[in-house]
């Protein structure tokens, strides 16, 4: 930006410009104080995750002067006062949406796990008070206050609902006729589908040959089922990698999001061997912020209503599970994503 905007370099010299996230801009706009919370800053490339400070080596690498960055503050903090007419009230919580989604599903304690499936997907794990450095997964700050800092371990999946949008075009199926969850509920397949567009966790691959093979019929439903199963396989691979960091394995996992449909959640339960609960509330992001505010005010986490709308328990034979995972991992090798 400095190379393309000659005035920007001058603003930096005068200390009249800040470089930050959208949240930092909003905090500055609302309160007059430029700051960014640690949960968002930890995804900003420039923060030292262990020390929760701007990293001098990274700043030098990207040629970012420290004075242009907003102040690093905890997620629960007195960010300033928001004025509206004759009223003013404090801004007390700023936090990333993925982090607060975990808190909104009651993920207060270490080893708590939640899943969210929308256009993309994420598997979130409360890693406790020590940063979790697991190759292939994302580490960031879950939330922080003036006393403690908790960390998040996360695996992301690029294509969840979006994989079916792609298949609508590929298979020439109108959007209102796709209804992938209905098709998958009545279809089984031995096929394997590795989507185009790249894989995120735990493989981080974008230069590979897409795979769509092994079908026993020419029905588009088999392809759609295999695409759905690819989401489950990636979820399993993320869990398997994350297990090395978990002290205790969970007995159940909460899932949310519009993509958390019954056939997918049942398949994930079958692969992981863990019960999956899908809540009636699709988006728990706001509830996570509400929980943080209550803890800030009372010192205690609130009891959230985590009653599930649907419960899924493992019911797949071990031999079938083993065969499916073998075909998936063989396909990853065939695509050049992994090595034998």
From TrEMBL:
UniProt GO BP: glycerol metabolic process
Keywords, in A-Z order: ATP-binding, Kinase, Nucleotide-binding, Transferase
Species of provenance: SAR86 cluster bacterium SAR86B
Entry GO MF terms: ATP binding; glycerol kinase activity
Family from the record: Belongs to the FGGY kinase family.
SUPFAM superfamilies listed in its UniProt record: Actin-like ATPase domain
Record Gene3D superfamilies: 3.30.420.40
PANTHER family reported in the protein's UniProt record: GLYCEROL KINASE, SUGAR KINASE
Domain Carbohydrate kinase FGGY N-terminal residue range list: 18-104
Cellular component, GO annotation: cytosol
This protein's name: Putative glycerol kinase
Carbohydrate kinase FGGY C-terminal domain ranges (all copies): 114-289
């Amino acid at each position: 930006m400095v190379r393309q905007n000659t005035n920007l370099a001058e603003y930096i010299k005068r200390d009249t410009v800040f470089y930050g996230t959208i949240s930092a801009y909003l905090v500055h706009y609302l309160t007059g104080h430029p700051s960014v919370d640690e949960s968002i800053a930890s995804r900003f490339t420039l923060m030292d995750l262990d020390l929760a400070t701007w990293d001098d080596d990274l700043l030098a690498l990207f040629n970012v002067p420290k004075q242009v960055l907003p102040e690093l503050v905890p997620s629960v903090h007195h960010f300033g006062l928001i004025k509206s007419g004759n009223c003013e009230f404090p801004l007390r919580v700023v936090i990333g949406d993925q982090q607060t989604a975990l808190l909104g599903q009651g993920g207060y304690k270490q080893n708590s796990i939640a899943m969210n499936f929308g256009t993309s997907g994420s598997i979130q794990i409360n890693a406790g008070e020590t940063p979790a450095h697991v190759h292939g997964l994302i580490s960031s700050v879950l939330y922080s206050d003036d006393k403690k800092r908790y960390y998040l371990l996360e695996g992301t999946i690029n294509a969840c609902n979006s994989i079916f949008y792609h298949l609508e075009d590929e298979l020439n199926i109108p959007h209102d006729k796709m209804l992938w969850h209905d098709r998958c509920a009545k279809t089984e397949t031995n096929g394997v589908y590795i989507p185009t567009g790249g894989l995120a966790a735990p493989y981080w691959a974008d230069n590979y040959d897409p795979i769509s093979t092994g079908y026993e019929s020419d029905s588009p439903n088999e392809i759609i089922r295999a695409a759905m199963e690819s989401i489950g396989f990636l979820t399993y691979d993320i869990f398997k990698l994350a297990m090395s960091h978990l002290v205790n394995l969970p007995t159940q996992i909460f899932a949310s999001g519009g993509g958390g449909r019954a056939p997918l959640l049942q398949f994930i339960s079958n692969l992981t061997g863990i019960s999956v609960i899908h809540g009636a509330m699709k988006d728990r992001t706001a509830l996570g912020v509400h929980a943080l505010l209550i803890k800030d005010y009372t010192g205690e986490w609130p009891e959230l209503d985590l009653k599930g709308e649907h419960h899924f328990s493992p019911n797949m034979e071990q031999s079938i599970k083993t065969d499916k995972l073998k075909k998936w991992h063989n396909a990853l090798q065939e695509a050049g994503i992994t090595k034998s």
